[in-house]
Design goal:
heterodimer; A: about 240 residues; alpha/beta; Rossmann fold; 10 strands; about 35% helix; B: about 290 residues; mainly alpha; two-stranded antiparallel sheet; 11 helices; about 5% strand; binds adenosine-5'-triphosphate; binds magnesium ion
């Protein structure tokens, strides 16, 4: 088991948002986490990355308890999050953003090979590497955020709302990139409001509803589930 | 004559720029208006004074000690004091900085009395002439060159190193910086150290050029503040532009209206800039 979340309870101050969350990501999998606005998806991701401390419960990564670790150590262990809304560093160029992605790596002195690898996946970023990220299109910004995540050499990459606000063609390209990364051995936790997209492109899925895991199962089965069809797919 | 005033203004402006660089950095990255900045400049000045008075160390040598000492002090003050209220409102950090200022000033007054002191170096009076009209004290030129060197070092650290990138990342998006693994607490402490270290450098140069006393800090904080506002936050060129602007206008102003009007002139510029360009001369640029 790569990531094993057990009985996690999380909130902001006194306001509890997540209740008894159990979630697992196996090595090599793409796992989808779907749910409506405000279900608590991003809250769970913040907790995994150490931005938010849970009330109780545990997060185990590769057999090690990372529940109360600071984010910098969690990043160093190989859990990299591509946050909701891209969150690029606006005053920096594309290349500087990518370099920041490699900040925790011990060998970050020489990241040229990694840069080259990422530029090969996203040639558009190479063309724009001296440009400030504010001047990129939405799709390019998402590429840059994704690429910055890859620069951290993730074992598990967590992508929050990648598709938001992007044209379907660009989303298709990005999903192809995700699958390619996964084929090369990186596990993925794909967080989406677009339930169809997420379940179409994952092995396993969790449905989060008002802070609780409402359903889980193989993505194909979830896609055929009557309840999901009615509530989330509008069929 | 005009040329002489202009040269004086530029040389003074360089020192103002160095005073303001540290304040601007801390303000821009941590959103702290460091009221104690001038007191740290004072400590830098006294570091140089005592090393000169006791050990006979040349001020241009003690510059390194002053920077190192003030860096360490700034690092510690951030890490073990300000860090505890960094999530509080800007008002709380302002009050804390105010408290630090009062503490430093009074500790210095008690230890060193309010006497005005001078670092009297042998070469202090040397000067040279440019053409027939302009006479320049050599020491001011050397100080100005050092300001340039220190500023370039600052720019280099912030723009070309991993440390600098992590400082900029933290100021641009705190959570995103955490998510790439930046140690934010440490970055804040280093930033504060760098800002206060620059204040130490400014203090050393100040002590070479002017008399010093434990109560000099307040006015220097105000001057630094004015320079930061004039130049505009968010740009590392801001303090340089602001410093030169203040130095030059002050030079002409005191020449025309008398030196007692120095501060009045600074604040008139401040008010004018706030009216005409509320974000500073370079405001909005990066
Ligand atoms: N910083 C915060 N302080 C207090 N409450 C918060 C905070 N952030 C989120 N919440 C609340 O927590 C709940 C879950 O929010 P969260 O952002 O995790 O949802 P989400 O599933 O990611 O939604 P979306 O699909 O819109 O991104 C919401 O009710 C939200 O209002
Ligand atoms: Mg969300």
């Amino acid at each position: 088991m790569l990531l094993d979340i057990k009985e996690l309870n999380v909130g902001y101050g006194d306001i509890q948002v997540l209740w008894d969350i159990n979630l697992q990501v196996k090595e090599g999998q793409v796992v989808a986490l779907v749910g409506a606005n405000g279900a608590g998806k991003s809250t769970l991701l913040k907790t995994i990355s150490g931005l938010l401390k849970p009330y109780n419960g545990s997060i185990i990564f590769q057999g090690e308890d990372i529940t109360s670790m600071p984010s910098k150590e969690i990043v160093a262990k190989g859990i990299i999050q591509v946050p909701e809304g891209r969150r690029l560093f606006p005053g920096m160029t594309v290349e500087e953003n990518l370099m920041m992605g490699a900040f925790r790596r011990k060998e970050s002195k020489n990241i040229k090979p990694e840069l080259a690898k990422v530029y090969k996946i996203f040639p558009r970023l190479k063309e724009r590497r001296q440009q400030k990220t504010g001047s990129l299109s939405g799709g390019e910004q998402q590429m840059c955020a994704f690429a910055r995540g890859l620069m951290g050499n993730p074992k598990l990459i967590i992508i929050d709302e990648m598709s938001l606000g992007l044209a379907p063609l660009i989303v298709d390209d990005l999903i192809d990139n995700v699958k390619e990364i996964n084929r090369q051995g990186t596990s993925v936790l794909l967080v989406e409001q677009d339930v169809q997209l997420a379940l179409d492109n994952s092995h396993y899925g969790y449905v989060l509803s008002t802070g609780k895991v409402q359903m889980q199962g193989n993505s194909l089965e979830l896609l055929r589930n009557q309840e999901i069809k009615e509530i989330y797919l509008g069929l | 004559m005009l040329l002489q005033i202009l040269v004086n203004g530029i040389l003074m402006g360089g020192l103002y720029a160095l005073m303001a660089i540290g304040m601007s950095l801390i303000w821009g990255v941590m959103n702290i208006i460091n009221i104690a900045h001038g007191s740290f400049i004072m400590l830098g000045a006294f570091t140089t004074y005592w090393l000169f008075a006791i050990l006979g160390m040349d001020p241009f040598v003690s510059l390194a000690f002053s920077i190192a000492l003030l860096f360490a002090l700034g690092y510690g003050v951030q890490r073990y004091l300000i860090n505890y209220v960094i999530r509080a409102s800007a008002f709380i950090t302002l009050i804390l900085a105010f408290g630090i200022e009062i503490f430093i000033n009074n500790a210095a007054l008690v230890s060193w009395t309010a006497d005005i002191r001078k670092v009297q170096v042998a070469y202090g009076a040397a000067n040279f002439s440019l053409g027939n009209y302009v006479t320049i004290p050599t020491i001011r030129v050397v100080a100005f060159l050092l300001v340039i060197v220190i500023s370039i070092a600052f720019f280099y650290i912030l723009n070309r190193t991993n440390l600098g990138r992590s400082i900029r990342a933290t100021s641009q998006d705190l959570d995103a910086a955490r998510l790439v693994g930046v140690d934010v607490a440490k970055t804040y402490a280093i930033t504060f150290g760098l800002g206060v270290g620059a204040a130490g450098a400014a203090g050393t140069l100040w002590s070479i050029l002017f008399p010093i006393s434990p109560i000099m800090g307040g006015e220097l904080t105000l001057k630094s503040f004015v320079v930061v506002i004039i130049g505009g936050l968010g740009s590392m060129l801001g303090p340089i532009i602001g410093g030169l602007a203040l130095g030059i206008t002050e030079a002409f102003g005191t020449n025309w209206f008398g030196s007692t009007y120095g501060n009045l002139i600074s604040f008139t510029i401040l008010v004018l800039v706030l009216i005409i360009r509320p974000k500073g001369i370079l405001g909005g640029a990066d």
